[in-house]
Write a structure and sequence with these properties.
The complex is a heterodimer of chains A (965) and B (257). Chain A has 29 helices and 39 strands. Chain A is of the alpha+beta class and 965 residues long. In chain A, helix 6 crosses helix 7 (193-206) and helix 22 (687-705) runs parallel beside helix 25. Classes of the chains: A alpha+beta (965), B alpha/beta (257). Chain B: GO terms for molecular function: ATP binding; hydrolase activity; phosphoribosylformylglycinamidine synthase activity.
Chain lengths: 965, 257
């Protein structure tokens, strides 16, 4: 029998308020409240259930009578009012159902299937246009949800149909180029003609055609996502600056730029090399202390987040956490960092291109997705940033990063011949399989698709359970190697682990979510929360018991064996047999061409620049600079007890910290600092400068809190537009060259990286490419966390100093943004001086000479001092603009708002002046003012007149207002 | 007397076990962790310990309602063991998700014939929030809070809004000395959001059972144990230890002095 349990809130109906507001926002109207009169949520229960069983189940589990009321009815009962019921599409992960089934079992209630729903009531039947907006844009997301209008109809909830084996071969040998490309396109294999020809030749030599499963395995392994064939491929690069052209032919662009810099730095360090494993494992690994190493990985999950922001962000974070868990013999995640790029949340809804979600909705969903996964995993989210730019409208960027702790004696892994291939964690379904469909009698009485495609919802608790057993198994030495199941599923995970040996897999051994998956679907499914281990046969029983004790599923899929081949069978039938060498090294080399020509852009003065105080407030109130407290507080940033410097600091804990500091081994004062740099606006003017500035910012962030600049590792994440355009690829090459040069100069090795290419939206009449976006994430060693400092001014009567040289670098600045100006010279660091400045600031901080330190970024000096003042609740008089180190003669406006790199403001006690001077001897360093008890900021011009005079409360309000949601 | 042994009960989604174990060890206790499945198989194991701790986290994802699925298991499979444990003059502590669990399992305020007397509902802000709060402490009989008058600790939750079925229940808790922890306002004024971060009736942050030996609280005392935990330590200087440690030390000293 099928029952419907509908639960309504007593008192305030927050969900109704949310959807009404959303409707009003999208329609610029006020009618949302008239359309939706109430909301409810509920469960569909199937089982041998009588009405009293359901009533008892509600009473004992489902309903909190103090805050909710319940209505129980057989499914399909006529509803009192017009209603819209929103359900997840069949096959989409719904973690709640698992918990409800578990509790039903505990309570001895015979429930066999569960689905959850949300429901919205309206007073009367709605006009079709309202109905359409409401349903499509507000109540549900078509990518994962379905909406049923009126009563539900169904006679069962179970999914799946039995699968009948049928071996599929693809007659490749006889095809011409057109035929080959049709196979690639129809199968969504994303293989090029050169690649298809290579595959054809390989199988011609074998004298047989490939199976679908073999072709899929090759496509997965050769995909951009898994092999990074563009960045690691051959590139003919030509660069023209002021009429002079230079050409370079890269055989492996990444290897010759970013990896090469790391190799050189490691050689330079010699015996003091503190890198452990770079660019080889799922995350980069560096030394931490005697007992532990730390590893760090940052991933993107852009396209899924554009379609379903909650699920996209949620599975993005889940994926990078598994990367850390799959590094060495398993890292314990100790903190997360999340960086997002969105279009402004006030973007006019009527100007949205078709199929694009409103940025405010994207932002809400992404933040909620990260929140729900990170918080449930018990990993503090300690750092991040949110950047707003209109070109991210159709392609929002979601970067998720995780730092992990690895015991020194668990740093090496090696798959051995004879080891079992063990899958641990979630079951396998059709998730993430391109185009896979199957019909099922669903709730709308029409044939439906099991939602595959790009979009999934994560199940954080499933992953937490996996984490708990893996860390125990690691410490007990139950496996020899581990990796995560990400893109390409088992195909990639087993293919990678067995690359040097060979592997045999019996696909029918894989636990499935529902019946009906073909052998190929099992092999390439991207279902979440799965890990693959190699386990010595004698350890299997112990591992199996450990998993069973904590309700984690584990299954032996096959064996690693020294055959050099990947052999797959399904119930004894061979479905694939390919050489590992062809799989991993058979991809044909392609030479891509890349060009970059320095654009000729002149600085344009704004017709009427804002007065300094107004410009300062405008920048503070711009979306990229303004307070992100609404986001930060939704993340647990303190769980695990290692928090030392929190993301929000100051007298009332609401100032913007430069970087987070975590001391992960409780009771020890050794820590890490985590920061990031991202400057896409500079990249429009010069990608080299932008990359250099991003690295500088990421290093500045961690140095500002006390991180050691000589023990700072960095990560790259490239998000680019369409790289088949040589100009786009040229900008990418120039960025990589900057990464090489700056990393070498700063002594900051890249230890890991990732790219996401072709972030471009195309419709009949519109093309939007994202700006060239390089995220640099930084991870610094902190020798003694009790020496750390924060950016908030501490007390009146102290001195303020500016460290670094200010230049006429307003190109891409926020001063230009608020004044509507374009062009100009973007900030670019001095590679010789910058490392000396970082070293000096670090020495000053660790010597205890600094009370507060803030790095200068968007908005330059004016914004930095303002933030320090309102965060500390201490005023400042800046009277020393004439004294600061500059390059050439600068106007006061440039001095206040230039975004020149490698600059810091320091607060120090008057008694520290002599010592500080000694630390900064020979470096650009100037006293610029003093701190005062009065709650205001004043900045004097070089001529001695007050340019800025504002109450701290006004400045803080300007900064907090935009995202005070 | 011997060093007390703490049992940290963990399950799917438990996640503050690491730091709370550290806090108890620092306070002088011995700590062991046990999965709920193992305790269900052998409930008598509970009697090997002096303190039962339900830590924070998201047990079973907080699906249905925070702490509810774990609470069902305490009620249905461990009720006898827990009764015996409590009758033996031992201590139970539930922090955050642990508070939600023991409240919903009836260990703090037993239900009457009309059902539960109190619950922890969604925050009135509508969202999960991590922030530091000031608490006024009225220890009454509470073993854990002996000698304390204030506490500065963080909260991190989405469902901490303490609601009683009727006004008289709230008054009754206060009169019985069970309303031991309340969110404090600025300068002695009555707290508003965000000082009361979740909208709790009576500004309740934590309650004791009638004996003083069971305590449930939403804030996280284990997150203010080390000198570097405090959000303003770079302003105020490092103290010897965080406020929260006293709570764990009180629990240990109950058995050692």
């Amino acid at each position: 029998m099928l029952w419907e349990v509908e639960i309504r809130p007593l008192g305030r109906d927050a969900e109704r308020e949310r959807v009404c507001d959303e409707f009003d926002l999208l329609t610029h109207g006020t009618r949302g409240g008239d359309l939706v009169s109430a909301s409810s949520r509920g469960y569909l229960l199937e089982g041998n259930l009588a009405a009293p069983d359901v009533a008892r189940f509600c009473n004992e589990l489902l309903v909190d009578p103090l805050v909710e009321s319940v209505k129980i009815s057989p499914l399909g009962t006529v509803l009192d009012h017009p209603a819209f019921t929103v359900l997840l599409k069949p096959g989409v992960m719904d973690p709640v159902t698992e918990s409800v089934l578990k509790a039903a079992n505990d309570l001895n209630v015979p429930v066999s299937q569960v689905r959850t729903f949300r429901r919205y009531f309206s007073h009367e039947n709605l006009p079709s246009q309202d109905c359409d907006t409401l349903v499509r844009k507000v109540l549900a997301n078509d990518a994962i949800e379905q909406v049923v209008i009126g009563p539900l109809k169904s006679d069962h909830l179970a999914l799946g149909q039995p699968y009948t084996f049928k071996l599929i071969t693809v007659p490749l040998r006889s095809l011409d180029d057109a035929g080959l490309m049709k196979v690639s396109k129809d199968g969504q294999l994303a293989l090029t003609i050169e690649e298809m020809r290579t595959i054809r030749q390989h199988f011609q030599e074998q004298d047989r055609d490939p199976t679908d499963c073999e072709l899929e395995s090759i496509a997965q392994t050769w995909s951009e996502h898994c092999s990074h064939k563009t960045l690691k491929g051959q590139i003919a690069y030509s660069e023209t600056i002021d009429g002079r052209t230079r050409t370079t032919h890269y055989k492996n662009m990444l290897k010759e730029t970013i990896f090469a810099a790391t190799q050189t730095i490691r050689q330079r360090l010699g015996a003091d090399d503190w890198c452990v494993s770079v660019f080889s494992d799922n995350a980069g690994v560096v030394k931490f202390d005697e007992q532990f190493h730390v590893c760090f990985k940052v991933e993107t999950h852009n396209r899924p987040s554009a379609i379903e922001p909650y699920g996209g962000a949620n599975t993005g974070l889940g994926g990078v956490i598994r990367d850390v868990l799959g590094t060495a013999l398993g890292g314990k995640p100790i903190c997360n960092t999340d960086v997002f790029c969105f279009a402004p949340p006030d973007f006019p809804p009527e100007e949205l291109p078709p199929g694009v979600l409103h940025p405010r909705r994207v932002m809400h969903g992404v933040v909620a997705g990260v929140r729900d996964y990170g918080n449930r995993m018990g990993i503090p989210t300690v750092n991040g940033s949110v950047y707003f730019e209109e070109r991210y409208l159709a392609n929002p960027l979601v970067f998720c990063g995780t730092v992990g702790l690895i015991p020194v004696d668990k740093a090496d892994k090696e798959v051995r011949a004879g080891d079992l291939i063990v899958a641990v964690g979630g079951r396998t379904g059709r998730d993430g399989i391109h185009g896979a469909t199957f019909s099922s009698e669903g709730l709308t009485e029409q044939s439906e698709k099991i939602s595959g495609g790009a979009v999934q919802i994560g199940n954080a608790i499933a992953e937490k359970k996996v984490l708990d057993v893996i860390l125990q198994a690691r410490d007990w030495g139950l496996y020899t190697a581990i990796t995560d199941c990400g893109a390409g599923g088992f195909s990639s995970a087993v293919g990678e682990m067995g690359a040097d040996l060979g592997a045999r897999v019996e696909l029918e051994n894989c636990p499935l979510k529902y019946e009906g998956l073909s052998y190929t679907e099992i092999w390439i499914s991207e279902s979440q929360e799965r890990m693959v281990l190699s386990v010595a046969p004698e350890k299997w029983e112990q591992l199996r018991k450990l998993c069973e004790a904590e309700n984690v599923e584990a299954a032996v899929l096959g064996t690693f064996e020294a055959t050099g081949r990947l052999k797959l069978t399904y119930h004894g039938q061979q479905v694939a047999d390919v050489s590992m060498q062809f799989l991993h090294d058979g991809r044909p080399e392609i030479v891509r061409s890349a060009e970059w020509t320095k654009p000729t852009v002149a600085a344009t003065s704004p017709p009427k620049p804002l007065a300094p105080t107004d410009a300062l407030k405008a920048i503070l109130g711009s979306f990229s600079v303004c307070s992100k407290e609404w986001v930060i507080r939704q993340y647990d940033h303190e769980v695990q007890g290692g928090s030392v410097i929190k993301p929000l600091v100051g007298v009332v804990e609401d100032g913007p910290s430069d970087a987070a500091v975590v001391a992960p081994v409780l009771g020890s004062t050794t820590g890490i600092a985590v920061g990031n740099g991202l400057n896409p606006r500079y990249a429009d003017l010069d990608p080299w400068a932008a990359a250099a500035a991003a690295i500088d910012e990421a290093v500045r962030n961690v140095v500002a809190v006390g991180g050691d600049p000589t023990r700072t590792a960095i990560l790259d994440n490239f998000c680019w537009g369409n790289i088949t355009d040589p100009q786009m690829l040229g900008a990418l090459v120039r960025t990589s060259e900057a990464c090489r040069d700056v990393a070498l100069a700063y002594g900051t090795p890249f230890i890991s990286g990732k790219d996401s290419l072709n972030n471009e939206y195309r419709s009949a009449n519109r093309k939007i490419s994202i700006p060239h976006t390089l995220l640099i994430s930084s991870l610094a060693h902190v020798t003694d966390v009790t020496r750390c400092v924060t950016m908030d001014l501490k007390e009146a009567g102290n001195d303020l100093y500016l460290v670094g040289v200010t230049k006429d670098e307003l190109g891409g600045s926020h001063y230009h943004v608020v004044n509507g100006a374009t062009g100009g010279r973007p900030p670019c660091p001095d590679l010789t001086q910058a490392p000396k400045l970082f070293a000096a600031v670090h020495r000053a901080i660790t010597s205890g000479l600094v009370r507060a330190c803030h790095d200068l970024s968007e908005g330059g000096l004016a914004v930095a001092v303002a933030e320090m003042a309102f965060a500390g609740g201490i005023g400042a008089d800046v009277t020393g603009l004439a004294a600061i180190s500059t390059e050439g003669e600068l106007s006061d406006g440039v001095k206040l708002f230039s975004e020149s790199t490698t600059r810091f403001v320091l607060e120090a006690k008057p008694g520290s002046a002599a010592d500080l001077k000694a630390v900064f001897d020979g470096l650009p360093f100037a006293k610029i003012g003093t701190t005062v008890a009065d709650q205001r900021l004043r900045i004097a011009s070089s001529a001695g007149e007050w340019l800025v005079w504002a109450k701290l409360s006004e400045l803080k309000d300007a900064w907090q207002k935009p995202l005070r949601w | 007397m011997a060093i007390p042994k703490v049992l940290i009960l963990r399950g799917p989604g438990t996640n503050c076990d690491h730091e709370v174990a550290y806090a108890f060890e620092r306070a002088g206790a011995e700590v062991e962790k046990l999965h709920i499945n193992q305790l269900r198989q052998a409930p008598q194991k509970l009697q090997n310990y002096q303190i039962l701790l339900l830590p924070g986290g998201f047990s079973y994802g907080d699906d249905v309602a925070a702490g509810k699925v774990l609470a069902v298991q305490l009620e249905h499979f461990l009720a006898d063991a827990i009764r015996e444990f409590r009758d033996a003059d031992k201590l139970v502590l539930g922090i955050c998700n642990g508070f939600q669990t023991i409240l919903k399992a009836g260990l703090l305020v037993p239900p009457d014939e009309d059902g539960p007397l109190a619950t922890l509902a969604r925050n009135t802000s509508g969202r999960y929030e991590d922030r530091w709060v000031n608490l006024d402490v009225t220890p009454g009989k509470s073993v854990f809070l002996k000698g304390l008058s204030t506490l500065e600790v963080p909260v991190a939750h989405g469902e901490g809004n303490f609601i009683c079925r009727k006004e008289w229940i709230l008054q009754g808790l206060a009169q019985a000395g069970q309303a031991v922890l309340r969110y404090a306002g600025l300068n002695g004024e009555s707290p508003v959001y965000p000082q009361n971060p979740n909208g709790s009736q009576g500004n309740i942050a934590g309650i004791s059972d009638a004996t003083g030996r069971v305590l449930g609280l939403m804030p996280h005392p284990e997150r203010n144990v080390l000198p570097t935990h405090h959000p303003r330590w770079t302003r105020q200087g490092l103290r010897k230890e965080g406020d929260g440690l006293a709570l764990f030390r009180n629990a240990v000293e109950y058995f050692t002095t």
